[in-house]
Amino acid sequence: MALxxxxxxxxxxxxxxxxxxxxxxxxxxxxxxxxxxxxDWNIPGWVIGNPWNTGGSMxxxxxxxxxVIESGTARITPSSAPDGIVAKLxxxxxxxxxxxxxxxxxxxxxxxxxxxxxxxxxxxxxxxxLSGDSTTHIGRSGTGTYNLSxxxxxxxxTTGADTHTFIGVYNGADGTFNQTxxxxxxxxxxxxxxxxxxxxxxxxxVNLSDGQFxxxxxxxxxxxxxxxxxxxxxxxxxxxVLKIGPGTDMPAADEPINGWGILHVGRYxxxxxxxxxxxxxxxxxxxxxxxxxxGDYIISGGSLDLPAYLYIPEAxxxxxxxxxxDHIVMxxxxxxxxxxxxxxxxxxxxxxxxxxxxxxxxxxARANARWSVNTLPGFAxxxxxxxxxxxxxxxxxxxxxxxxxxxxxxEFDWEIAxxxxxxxxxxxxxxxKTNAVAWSxxxxxxxxxxxxxxxxxxxxxxxxxxxxxxxxxxxxxxEASITAASNPDSPVARLDIGGSAGAxxxxxxxxxxxxxxxxxxxxxxxxxxQSAGNVLFTGNDHAYIGRFGQGIYNLDxxxxxxxxxxxxxxxxxxxxDRGSVGVFNQTxxxxVKNGSVQQNIxxxxxxxxxxxxxxxxxxxxxxxxxxxxxGNSQASGDLARGYxxxxxxxxxxxxxxxxxxxxxxxxxxxxxxxxxxxxxEVNQTxxxLDALYLKIADSTETGxxxxxxxxxxxxxxxxxxxxxxxxxxxxxxxxxxDHIKAKRFIVGTGSTLNLQLDENGTTxxxxxxxxxxxxxxDALLNGxxxxxxxxxxxxxxxxxxxxxxxxxxxxxxxxxxTNLSDSATFDWQVVTKDNGGVPGQMLQLVVTSAKTPYDLxxxxxxxxxxxxxxxxxxxxxxLNNLYEFGLGGDPTDPLDQGIAPTYRLTEDAGTDWLTYVxxxxxxxxGLTYYLExxxxxxxxxxxxxxxxxxxxxTIDSDFDAVTNRVSTEIEDEQFIRLIIE
Length: 981
Fold this sequence. Notes:
This protein is mostly beta strands. Among the domains are: 516-723; 745-849, no CATH class; 853-887, no CATH class; 902-980, Immunoglobulin-like, CATH 2.60.40. It is 2% helix and 48% strand. 53% of the residues are buried.
C-alpha cells in the first residue's frame, strides 16, 4: 500500500531527509525518506548521479538535503560516502543515534543531541570538514559525543563569518569531545571560538589522550563561558598536543590578524583543566577571568608553554602537583591575590619558570599570590629542607609572597635568593604537624592500613580511636567510609579533607563526632556524602564547607548537627573565602544548627566566595542562633554570593517557629538575610520557609537581594523587610505557591515587589498581624509594585486579581506602580475585603487591556493592519501567518517556516503504523492543533479521526512535540494534514 503524509497548508522544511534504517551505509537510497514529495534529495550530500539532479550540476553544494538521524547507525565509508556537501546533520534520539565515519566527508553544520536526545559521531579515519557559516553543536540541549581516533576533523568558515565550535551548548546539555588520535583543527578568523560549556545549565568536556588539538588561528577557547556553565579539559598521553594561538609572542597590533590564542578557564562560569601529560601551548591562560568566573588548573605531568602570560584576574587557582611535569614556562605570572597550590612529592615540585626579560612585552612574576603547600604520598622532607618553587628572570619583591599556608603534613616558610641570573622563590620546611594522621587509598575508617602518623610521637594510629585521641584526620586523596561497623568511638579532633584530585568521606551509618571541620583548602575539592548515621560537628571552632577550594556536603539521610561545647562563637560557613565554592545539598535527613545567638550560618561569606544551599527534602533547622545569611560581605566592589534553591518537601526553619515575645537574645534572633553586604538570591519552587524575620538586601550600603517564589510556602512570624533601595526585590511568580504569610510586610523606598501573573493571577500575600501584635501588624508599600505576565496568562479586560491582603493597615500613599507586561496593562485599587472570614484591606490588580499571544508575536515582526491578519501570507511561502505562529516560523522570511512535522513508518506488536509528530506551542497560545485524514483527495471528506495521540515531549523552551500514529493496514491509501486554528 502507498501512504502519503501531507498537509494542505504546511510544507515546511522540505529539505529534511530522514534516516529510516537501523544500521546501514549512507549511500543506500532505501535508508532514507524525504520529508515531502518535492524536492526529493534522495540522500543528503549526493550530487553526481542523483535522480533529482536533472540539470547535471557538478556543484558540491547543490544538494540541500538535511540529514535527520533519530535512531540507528549511519556509516560513511570509502565505498559509501557522499560526493557533495551535506547541508546539515541533525543527529540524536531518545534511544541514541550514531554516525560512524571512516572516509572523507563534508558537512556545513552538525547538531548532536537536542533536548532529551543522545547522539554520537565516531571517526576512525578520513578527512571530515565542517565548513558552514553557522556553528557546530556537540550536545545542543541533550547529550552529544564526538569520538576522534584517527583522520582529521577541521572546522572553519567558508566566508570568514562568526562560527564557533560548541561542546555543551544550552541548559541540560552534556557535550563531550574524546580524542584518542588524529588531528582536530579549528581555524579561520578571530571570531571563531571553541566553547566548552556555553549557557547556564550546560556542561562540556574535552578529553585529549592522543593526537593534536589545534586552534592556531582564531580567538579563544573558553571553558565555562557564561554564568552557570561548566567546562572541563582533561589532558593525558605523552604524544597529546594542545595548541591555542600561534605559539609565539607577537606585537599587539598583529594579534587581531593571527589570533589572540586565549585559553579561558572559567570565563563567566566554571572551568577546570587537569593535565597529567601531553604538551599544552597557549599565548594566554586566564583563570577565572570575569566577574562570576571561577577556574582551576592542575598540572602533574607534561609541559606548559605560555609565550605571553598566566593570569588569574578574578577567582581561581593554579596547582603544580608533584615534580612529574617536564616544564612550566611563561613570560609573565600574574596570580592577582589568588591561590597557587604547590604539592610536594619526594622530588619537590616542577619549577615554574618565568623567563620574560626586562625588554619583553610581558615579563616578571607580578602581583600578589597566596600559596598553599600540600604534601603528597612519598614526601619525606626534613626540617630545614629547601624546595625551588618559582624562578623569575626579573626581580621578585618579597612583599609579593606574604601569605603561605601549609595544608599537608608539614609547615613551611619562604625565602627569595639570587639564582642563575634571576631570582628564586624557595619554600623551607620548618616542622611537621604533630597530631596529623594522613589517609591514603579507599576503605573503612577503622582500617589502620589506610592511616599514617605524620610524626613518630605521639602515635594516634586512627583519629578518634580510644579516649583522649587528639589525632587530626588529614584526607588529601582517596575515599574513607564511616559505617555502623566502622566508626570512631571518640571525637575526632579535626577533619581536614580535600585534594587537588578530590577526596571523599562517606557516612552510611554509626555515630561520629568531629571537633573541627574543614572541607577544601585552596585548589582542593572535598566531598562528604551522608546517607545515614549521626554526625556531630562540635568543639569551639567553625565548620567550613569550601574554605578556599570547592567543598560539597551531600545529606540524604541521618542527622547532621553543628553546635558548640561552650557556647562560643561557632559559625557554619558554606563558601568562605575569595575563589571558594561551598555547596550543601540536602535531599533527606535532618540538619540542626544550635547553641548560642553568636552562631551564624553564612552561605557565601567573603568577597568573591560562592555558597549554594540546595534543599529539596528533609529538615534544615536553625532554631536557636542568630542569622542565616546569603551573601555576607564585599571588598572593593567584589561581592560574596549566596544562593538558596528551595524545592520539593524541604523545610527550612530559621528561629523557634513561634516569634512570640521580645526576649530575642536568649532564644536567638531567627533572621534570614538574603544579601547582607553581598549578593543573596532565593529561588523557591516548593518546600517551606519558616522564619522569624526575612530581610532582603539587609545592608543599606552594598547588599543586594532577590527572592523569587513560584511554589511552596512562606511563614514569617514577624516581618518581611525590603528597605535597601533598588537592590531589594521580591518576585511572586504565578499562583503555584501554597501561601505567603507574614505579620508585617515592608517594601521600602526604591525596593520592588514584582507580581508575575499566570492564568490564575499570583499567590496571595497575607499580612496577618493585628492590632494585638503591637507595631508588627501592617503592610507598608512605600516602594515599587510591578505587574507582569507569565506564559499562560489569558485574562480579558476587566478581570480583577487579589494580590496582597492586610488584616490591619495597608499603606500605599508613597507606592509607585509600574506595568511591565507586553500582553496586558493593569491598574490597581485597594478595597475592603475579608480573607478567610477576617476583615482587612486588599490590594487588587485590574486588567485594563489585553493582547493575545498571536498579537504579541506578529507585532514583534513589525506587521500591522492587513499584513498582520492571521489569514495573510505576508512572505508568500505557502503558509499563512497563523500557521507560521503555530510552527514557530518567521512571517517575513520565506525561508523560515518554523518546525516541520515529521513522520516515519514504525512497527508495534505486528502492526504497521505511520508515526506523525507535529510541534505545538507549550505555553498558552490560543491555538488548537489536530490532524485530519481522508482517503480521497478528489472527493474530500476530511475527518478529525482515525489516528491515536501517543503523548507529548519537549522540543525546546517554546515548543512541545505531539506524537500521533495512523494504522497503515486499514485503508489502501490515506492523506494527512495538520490543522492549526
